[in-house]
Amino acid sequence: MDIKLKHLLDIESLSKEEINFLINLAIGLKEVLYRPIPKVPTLRGRLIVHLFYEPSTRTKFSFDRAAKALSADTLSFSAKGSSIEKGETLLDTIKNLEAIGAELFIIRHPLAGAPHFVAKHSKAGVVNAGDGSHEHPTQALLDLLTVKEKLREVEGIKVLIIGDIKHSRVAHSDMLIFQKMGAEVFVTGPASLLPEPDELKYYEVKPGKLRVCNKLEEGLREADVIIALRIQRERHGKALIPSIQEYHEFFGLSQKHLDIIKPNALLMHPGPINWGVELAPEMEEYPFQVILDQVENGVAIRMAVLLTLLTGEK
């Protein structure tokens, strides 16, 4: 299949065929990471710039690892200590980096739509590494890859996403990608952290394939995949839950839920984890917890994205 992508801005605009292409390419590229010298020369001489206007550990280092595994050159930008502090605009930053040879921008930004803005005004490719509360497409792709590796099939499974659905870009991208691939998606969390019905409708890809569970236990009994989310307090502006302790009591996963969870159900989390909030410490020992598998798969997915955008490899 001839798949050509210049940008990766969201899951919403990707077709099922494009998603499958990126997943299959990542599966093939993952082998590179296990070689004695985990590197191929495919992107030698190509310049990738990491533009991170928000803190990041997993995403930033994963993209950097992916670029280096493909032999690309990289530059890392941090808003702190840059000309942003002197009043330079995002567009001016992009133009200056293009002038020194940037061919692809990996952008994380607190404003929803910032990567789309850059894509409209740049000759370079753009990857959205998380924009505000909008989307985080490579996280959704690596989550899908992890589920496919463990369960083989995605069609017909049930995915439960727990927590701050309203403000989580991961939740938004995951809701879209799993529905597109044939799964049913449930969301649950405090009412103040759930989207309004009309907002939730925006993420309904197929009628009846996205619904709200009012109680955590209701979703746990059915879920084949459980995705716990961090509370996005930096995006709230005001207190939206009474307390962290109360959140954990009603929506945190702990030992008491093990009798409810379906046998072999996967437990996932995009990180960073707040132990004792969304997950009790003992859940680290849950036998089907695949959180570090997600981190590992993030490198392969991002290799696939970089390769596709910069070379059009098929």
Description of the structure:
35% of the residues lie in helices and 14% in strands. Helix 9 links the parallel strand 8 (225-228) and strand 9 (266-268). The protein is an alpha/beta fold and 314 residues long. It is globular and about 55 Å long. The model has no long low-confidence stretch (mean pLDDT 93). The protein folds into two domains: 16-135 and 295-311, Rossmann fold; 137-290, Aspartate/ornithine carbamoyltransferase (Rossmann fold, 3-Layer(aba) Sandwich), CATH 3.40.50. The strands form two sheets. It has a five-stranded parallel β-sheet. The protein has helices at residues 16-29, 58-69, 90-99, 114-121, 137-151, 169-180, 197-202, 216-220, 244-251, 291-311, and strands at 47-52, 73-78, 104-109, 125-131, 158-162, 184-188, 210-212, 225-228, 266-268.
Q: Topology of this protein?
A:
Elements: H1 16-29, E1 47-52, H2 58-69, E2 73-78, H3 90-99, E3 104-109, H4 114-121, E4 125-131, H5 137-151, E5 158-162, H6 169-180, E6 184-188, H7 197-202, E7 210-212, H8 216-220, E8 225-228, H9 244-251, E9 266-268, H10 291-311
Parallel strand pairs: 1-2, 1-3, 3-4, 5-6, 5-8, 6-7, 8-9
